[in-house]
Amino acid sequence: MKNDLKRLLMIFIYSLVAAIGMTAAVPHALAAPIEEETSILIDKSSHILVVYVNETPVYTFMVATGKGNLTPVGEFRIANKIKHPWYNRKSIPGGDKRNPLGTRWLGISIPNTGGYRYGIHGTNRPYSIGQSVSSGCIRMLNRDVEFIFKHIPVGTRVVIQD
């Protein structure tokens, strides 16, 4: 019950911040932890990605996830990072406004994929954020994934839960 209220509050805060045009990154408590471990939690049911530093939530972002069970659950790592990723299925170059991968790609170490099948990436469909619509990847607004890309190193732990 407490976690459900917390999620609803975060969704409300995110919506309010987005409605007035501020950045989508919503800082949590004014804690200033000493950085030892950065990790990411993706909650598929609430479409939220939370960045933790030393187990303290620091930033929350709304995301889109996969249809049905297409987004795998479990504990993984950031395997690679790519600026302006190419969309190989339709040979759309990185940086092209038609590119559904947006401006950044953070590959997730799902077994047997090399970090190139599932990832956290931007989108050219910002209206999809907050929904279960992808083929398994985690979509973010381009400005949000650019922030994550800048601050999250390869090797960061990523937990995806239902």
Automatic annotation (TrEMBL):
Residue span, L,D-TPase catalytic domain: 38-161
Domain of life according to the entry: Bacteria
Membrane spanning stretches: none
Keyword Transferase: yes
InterPro entries, per database record: LD-transpeptidase, LD_TPept_cat_dom, Transpep_catalytic_dom
Gene3D superfamilies: L,D-transpeptidase catalytic domain-like
Positions annotated as active site in the UniProt record: 121 (proton donor/acceptor), 137 (nucleophile)
UniProt entry keywords in alphabetical sequence: Cell shape, Cell wall biogenesis/degradation, Peptidoglycan synthesis, Transferase
Pathway: Cell wall biogenesis; peptidoglycan biosynthesis
Pfam families per the UniProt record, alphabetical: YkuD
Protein name per UniProt: L,D-transpeptidase
Organism, scientific name: Paenibacillus hexagrammi
